[in-house]
């Protein structure tokens, strides 16, 4: 009896030991790798998996072919660093504190990479972060300072201080990523890698190898290129992001400053200064190639300019914008292809979650615009393609309302790590794995803050459902906008005062208040952020905002109260 008890005890002990030593081991191996690919300002209109009118992106499309394409993915605040902060923290801007590009990210926030690192994931980040400080929770990082440069960029590195690398940024960030995958990571451990492109951010300098091809292409114009902004709340007309009026000749379109002088073209904004800054980084042979390609553009322009009407100018500027913007995307697509080829060649595709997304969408001439910030579709929505062959059915698609807010909890669930209670998103795993019945979101919340600032897009918050948007422009305005996605897909009409929409309007107002409560947003928090930015703006510290502008805003506020 005694012996058998001892035997039983010994058996249980062995079982326990083997369990505790083996189970985590197997469990560890099963945990997926995570590769988060994000480009900066990549419009879904410029990914052929969504729309091939403008460009073919066969490599990015591979991710959707292997996995899932989301047609209603959006951001909570359509601007760079705030989007990144929401992705990392799983919280809306008003709670993580990064409401605009101006102030630094608060590094006391808990981010999903920190939690994954604690759980045994290897973590690395390469490319653009734009936080004003270094990321926490990474075993390795090489990041661009601020916006970073297209040519011969500098990097802030975790171990080697600041370095400058000769070449084109999209290629270099990929080289660093592949080098880490091949030579630096522990091959037995799962990893989470953030591969973050600067392209296609303004001022759109493409790789030398694409110059000839892209500067000779012509693109279809969007239907709303000549939008006059009537029929909507006034912020659309007040924004400074119209291609004709605000995009600069030298800085954006690469008209040579001497050519501007010769033709008597007045500067738009920081026109020549921006040009000088962008070109100052090029080495001699890069400069030669640029001057050659843009020399032809300038020659052709000089012949046309004297006879150009405003309409002609808009059309010409749109073409130049698309040539350069899409040219930078060509290199992103090629480099995404290099990464996918590496994963395939190393048999890593099956149990790796690959996400391709952008920090927000972008206007490619819709409403006559470039840039982002507004809640209108092109900048509110963002591309989202996800592959994970082990779990996602190839070639699938989801029209659900998902957001950048959801990434943190998605990755934590995939890695088997509990998400902190105060994260505000939802894991996308049910949608990715075909269990849509577990997904019940019917509306999302949006809040944009960066005003006064470059492009002058007024502050606004909103509720968005699959059918409608109810938007409140506050601060220097007090206007509401009701958009009807089904009946007015180009978003040209404000139905707020249309009696036919009375019930819908009421319902949306109630739901918007519920959402604000759910996500813990309030007018008091908004006021705190207004005060912070206005203090710096009054001291002349906010890029693109003059002291006169600050006075004008204060006057408008006084009138509104
Ligand atoms: C720069 C650009 C803006 C752009 C912001 C924010 N101007 O300031 O056009 O909106 O970045 O972009 S530029 O004259 O410097 O090109 S973001 O992606 O970082 O949010
Ligand atoms: Ca951006």
TrEMBL record:
Enzyme class: hydrolase
Name of this protein: Arylsulfatase
Alphabetical keyword list: Hydrolase, Signal
Source species, domain of life: Bacteria
Organism: Indibacter alkaliphilus (strain CCUG 57479 / KCTC 22604 / LW1)
CDD domains linked: G6S_like (cd16031)
Domain N-sulphoglucosamine sulphohydrolase C-terminal positions: 365-518
SUPFAM superfamilies referenced in this protein's UniProt entry, alphabetically: Alkaline phosphatase-like
GO molecular function: arylsulfatase activity
């Amino acid at each position: 009896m005694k012996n058998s008890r001892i035997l039983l005890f010994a058996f249980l002990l062995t079982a326990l030991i083997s369990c505790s030593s083996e189970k985590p081991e197997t469990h560890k191996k099963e945990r997926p790798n995570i590769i988060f690919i994000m480009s900066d300002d990549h419009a879904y209109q410029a990914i052929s998996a969504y729309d091939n009118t403008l460009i073919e992106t066969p490599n990015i499309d591979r991710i959707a072919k292997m996995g899932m394409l989301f047609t209603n993915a959006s951001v909570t605040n359509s601007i760079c660093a705030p989007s990144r902060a929401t992705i990392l923290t799983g919280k809306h801007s008003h709670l993580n504190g990064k409401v605009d590009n101006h102030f630094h990210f608060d590094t006391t926030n808990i981010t999903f990479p920190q939690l994954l690192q604690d759980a045994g994931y290897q973590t690395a980040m390469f490319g653009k972060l734009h936080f004003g400080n270094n990321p926490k929770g990474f075993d390795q990082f090489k990041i661009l300072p601020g916006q970073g440069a297209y040519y011969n960029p500098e990097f802030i590195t975790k171990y080697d201080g600041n370095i400058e690398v000769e070449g084109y940024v999209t290629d270099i960030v990929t080289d660093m990523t592949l080098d880490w995958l091949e030579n630096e990571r522990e091959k037995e451990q799962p990893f989470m890698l953030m591969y973050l492109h600067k392209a296609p951010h303004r001022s759109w300098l493409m790789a030398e190898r694409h110059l000839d091809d892209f500067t000779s292409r012509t693109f279809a114009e969007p239907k709303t290129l000549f939008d006059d902004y009537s029929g909507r709340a006034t912020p659309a007309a007040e924004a400074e992001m119209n291609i004709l009026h605000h995009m600069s000749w030298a800085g954006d379109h690469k008209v040579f400053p001497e050519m501007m002088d010769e033709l008597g073209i007045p500067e738009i904004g920081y026109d020549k200064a921006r040009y000088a800054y962008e070109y100052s980084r090029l080495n001699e042979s890069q400069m030669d190639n640029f001057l050659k390609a843009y020399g032809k553009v300038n020659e052709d322009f000089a012949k046309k300019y004297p006879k150009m009407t405003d309409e002609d100018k808009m059309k010409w500027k749109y073409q130049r914008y698309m040539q350069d913007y899409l040219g930078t995307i060509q290199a992103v697509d090629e480099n995404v292809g290099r990464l996918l080829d590496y994963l395939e060649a190393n048999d890593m595709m099956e149990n790796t979650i690959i996400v391709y997304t952008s920090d927000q969408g972008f206007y490619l001439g819709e409403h006559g615009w470039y840039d982002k910030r507004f809640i209108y579709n092109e900048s509110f929505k963002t591309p989202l393609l996800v592959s994970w062959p082990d779990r996602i059915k190839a070639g699938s698609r989801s029209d659900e309302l998902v957001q950048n807010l959801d990434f943190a909890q998605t990755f934590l669930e995939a890695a088997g790590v509990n998400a902190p209670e105060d994260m505000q998103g939802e894991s996308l795993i049910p949608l990715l794995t075909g269990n849509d019945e577990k997904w019940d979101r019917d509306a999302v919340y949006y809040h944009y803050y960066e005003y006064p600032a470059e492009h002058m897009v007024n502050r606004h918050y909103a509720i968005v459902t699959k059918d409608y948007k109810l938007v409140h422009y506050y601060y220097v305005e007090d206007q509401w906008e009701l958009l009807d996605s089904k009946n007015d897909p180009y978003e040209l009409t404000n139905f707020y005062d249309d009696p036919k929409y009375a019930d819908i309007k009421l319902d949306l107002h109630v739901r918007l208040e519920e959402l604000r409560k759910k996500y813990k947003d309030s007018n008091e928090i908004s006021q705190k952020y207004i005060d912070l930015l206005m203090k710096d703006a009054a001291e002349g510290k906010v890029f693109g905002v003059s002291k006169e502008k600050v006075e004008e805003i204060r006057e408008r506020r006084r009138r509104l109260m």
